[in-house]
Structure formats: C-alpha cells, structure tokens
Amino acid sequence: MVKLKVNGETREVEATADTPLLWVLRDELKLVGTKFGCGIAQCGACTVHIDGSAVRSCTTRAGAVGDAEITTIEGLSGPAAEAVQEAWRAVDVPQCGYCQSGQVMSATALLAKNSAPDDAAIDGAMHGNVCRCATYQRIRQAIHDAAAKLEG
Ligand code: FES
Ligand code: FES
Question: Which atom of ligand 1 is nearest to the CA of 42?
Fold first, then answer.
C-alpha cells in the first residue's frame, strides 16, 4: 500500500513501493492521459510533474514520491498550463497525439520556471521528449507563443 498526492487529492493505492508510478497512475487511478512509450526514461511519453518539475513516471518508484505533489495532464492548471494549451491548439501541434501529453507537461514545467525561454532553453527542456511524428518545429513555435502570452 502506498499513499500518494495526485492532482490535489491524497490517494491510497494497492501497489507496492517499487511499482513504477506510471502503472499506478494508469492502472490503479485510471489517469490514462499519461502514456507508456519506452519504459526506460528515453521517450518522455510518461512525463508528469512532481513538485512542479517534469519527471519520467516510468522510472519513478511509487514509494519514492513521498509527500510530493504529483500532477498529471488531467490535473494541469495555472497560467503556464493555460498558455501552453491555448498555444498548442492555435498552432495545431499534435499529429497522432501519442507523445503530446508528455510534451505539454515538459513545456509547462519549463514555462513555469522560465517564462521567456530562448531556443536553447526550449531544446534543453524538451530534448527528452521524443515525437515519432516529428512535430518539433510546431512544439517550439507553440512554446514561444505561450511564452509571449505569459509575458503579456
Ligand atoms: S515511457 Fe517513460 S520515458 Fe518513455
Ligand atoms: S504527435 Fe505523434 S508521436 Fe508525437
């Protein structure tokens, strides 16, 4: 049994402490917006926030999270999240969509800490999020647009 704080709620789950957080989110809590891609921290599909930082949930043990706040795509909120979601829609970023919740989580974590990232900062924050449809140009454009909106 593990206790987790997910999207503002404390949840008790049956999983053992060494269960990957990704499987707790998807299988036990039915938060299926977080995707499984590689399982070895190489693709970013499973990205969630832990205390606001982008983290790969496939290689994070449920028992290691402790009292930290977990946010999934379902619980994403706040100015950076809104700016990212609006820009994603305006730029029409997704193609197949599979990688996109992870992309949005990484982009939001970046903008929450740096509201005016340059291309290098964007590439640094996003390099672990792989998109097999190669939407990288649109992702970068959407992050710039979201940043401009945040800067007002
Ligand atoms: S599924 Fe976690 S990084 Fe690929
Ligand atoms: S939109 Fe298809 S994998 Fe990224």
Answer: 3
